[in-house]
Amino acid sequence: MRLAVFSDIHGNRHALGPVLEDIARLAPDATYCLGDLVGYGAFPNEVIESVHGCACPIVMGNYDDGVGFDRDECGCAYTEERDRELGDRSLAWTKNVVSPANKAVLRSLLPEIRLEAGGRRMLLVHGSPRKMNEYLFEDRPISSFERLAASANADIIVFGHTHKPYVKLVNGVWFVNTGSVGKPKDGDWRACYTVLEPAASPPATFRRLPYDVAAAAAAIRASGLPHEFAVDIETGGSR
Questions:
Q1: What CATH superfamily is the domain 3-235?
Q2: Average pLDDT of the segment spanning 114-133
Q3: Mean pLDDT, range 186-210, rounded to an integer
Q4: Given 21, 47, 133, 225, which is the most exposed site by the fewest CB atoms within 10 A?
Q5: Quick check: 14 and 213 in contact, CB under 8 A?
Q6: In 3-state terms, what secondary structure has residue 239?
Q7: What CA–CA distance (Å, rounded) separates 28 from 188?
């Protein structure tokens, strides 16, 4: 059993294309998307239509929620005032650009996905089993992972949201962060997604794919979105 899981595309159609092509070549048993199709990138409608057209199950991300329901904020929990200002501009721009039909698609996305594969119970969410916008960073206190391991009723928990891929084993439960297709924040600008083999230990490997990041950055700069988002994808989030 082999599964492909990708997340956090954030309107970057240039990064999404090579990922979908690579998944098609791999021909996994199933493919899943963990949300945040939109935000920060210049092509939200195109990304929504491409992912929705794949007919793969899609979990709702916090940005999908914010745009789909026309909320006043995206649930991004910014800690710096400058980032909050940029985020507010991104949300306003994206809500204005995304079509009513595509907002309806965002509103229809799933809160979570549960399945069994390779003899293991799997839980797929955007942020964490507790909240779609909770950040499960790898260096979070182990007690937080222990509580989730005890309460999630799963052997493998798969999520995104932080844009930093990792695999971590806590009390017999695997935590897998898929990384980000369209807006990595681990210093590697290449698109990232995860291949899961649930019976294996560890159950996940990461695939990094180059794409036309210059074209994606140019589109951001030409769109009216903050230019800082172009720098983010050019540098892998290391600005």
A1: Metallo-dependent phosphatases (3.60.21.10)
A2: 97
A3: 98
A4: 21
A5: yes
A6: coil
A7: 25
